Amino acid sequence: MTVLETRSQHGCFDGIQSYYQHSSETIGLPMRFSVYQPPQARSQRIPVLFFLAGLTCTEETFMIKAGAQRYAAEYGLMLVSMDTSPRQTGIAGETDDWDFGAGAGFYLDATEQPWSTYYRMESYITQELRQIIIDQFPADPNRIGIFGHSMGGHGALTLALRYPDLFRSVSAFAPICAPMQCPWGQKAFRHYLGEDQQNWRQHDATALIEDGRRIPDLLIDQGLDDQFLAQQLYPEALEKACREAEQKLTLRFHSGYDHSYYFISTFMSDHLKHHRDALL
Amino acid sequence: MTVLETRSQHGCFDGIQSYYQHSSETIGLPMRFSVYQPPQARSQRIPVLFFLAGLTCTEETFMIKAGAQRYAAEYGLMLVSMDTSPRQTGIAGETDDWDFGAGAGFYLDATEQPWSTYYRMESYITQELRQIIIDQFPADPNRIGIFGHSMGGHGALTLALRYPDLFRSVSAFAPICAPMQCPWGQKAFRHYLGEDQQNWRQHDATALIEDGRRIPDLLIDQGLDDQFLAQQLYPEALEKACREAEQKLTLRFHSGYDHSYYFISTFMSDHLKHHRDALL
């Protein structure tokens, strides 16, 4: 069984907030993740929610800023988050850009060198980390949901679409809905996946739905003052694909809210209720 | 009227989270503070809660980590926090120690050179910042409370004790209860206030109560896994002084909780209710 190094542990809403590091077989380097165990975890196997964070974030960001533990403690949900990429791979230029490389793994397995050796976040989350959570925490493997923010919203949507047997509920805050159409996604996909756009479609939520994939009822919240909305996020493209495919989608736009965790924290209770209703 | 530079603004729980900078007359340098205005602020003057943060923190820490906006929006309380010291004064050694100098103003007016020129956090908060909040925000000047964490808990207690006309409610998370008795306090007081311990008593919550000062009903939460409890915080000293002085104190110890914002966030709703009950 994977040996976990506990980096820190904190009491939080009658549960435990923990940070771990381990040697990842999938990535080939140390990886870090965080777990919030609500009080219900002391006595039973409980549902789990994976949260995938956005560009530049780490395994800490969600746990510090989102204010989710309060609701997780109320609803009996375990929360899991993880770093947003491998770190210190030694690949030249890895830390040159804030929107590509370190902190920007885009939750896929790169197929192109030099990235393909280490940048394997999709396999890391869906196989290795998922198995660690099932083996070493009181998690119910049949009740796992996934959600995320921005790049992590893209990750939640695409992993839910690609692994419908693994994730029973899904939602997102301000996700990159159509990465093939936006600068962030095009830059990442070109480097990680190469030039063939047919491969890109496997990692684009809008394209996956156009191509016939389906997920459980989807909840998305989007701020209208989001500085990245017009250029990077394309919720309208996803909405159109869902409508044409009869994929159920609740897409809510909120005036006065931006791309920050102040926005995320505001609507966190709705998202945790959404997952609770699907998982409990 | 003081000109405020708005550094950022974010929608949050149907209210507004804002960060400001201004040229401080009291400090003689730019100072930063943060305000959360709940939705009730759109239509009326509302009560205000000042939060004083701990060592190494800034005006952002509480607003990012404490999860207080949710309750402030529910109860109709404005939240105000501020940086924990002047910055970039040019004083030699100012940033050498994490527990003294920059990030460690201890919420008093230094009397000793070189600190006395700039380190005037007590006057800054009780006069200049308080006036800014009253003049430029929909604040009710007769309903202002104060709370804080660690060094900021010390600040909340001592400012409430020294200015009973300004603060109508007070509480603290893991405060430094008797700074004259602990290494953090002794180091700060020696440098800021000089060697005469009679002057120190004016800035030590336990001594102020011993010397006859009183405050409204006081709520303190303290984690029993707090790594600073034994050496730095001395809640028992404060409890003894309160008991002997018949100062009303609710002091709660919590097993499994440490000194972090995971602890603070867990008991935030109780503190905001405590202030709401006193201020509404």
TrEMBL record, chains A, B:
Keywords: Hydrolase, Serine esterase. This is S-formylglutathione hydrolase. It is an enzyme of class 3 (hydrolase). Its EC number is 3.1.2.12. Belongs to the esterase D family. GO terms for molecular function: carboxylic ester hydrolase activity; S-formylglutathione hydrolase activity. One of its GO terms (biological process) is formaldehyde catabolic process. GO terms for cellular component: cytosol. Serine hydrolase involved in the detoxification of formaldehyde. It comes from Nitrosomonas supralitoralis. The active site is at S150, D226, H259. It catalyses: S-formylglutathione + H2O = formate + glutathione + H(+).
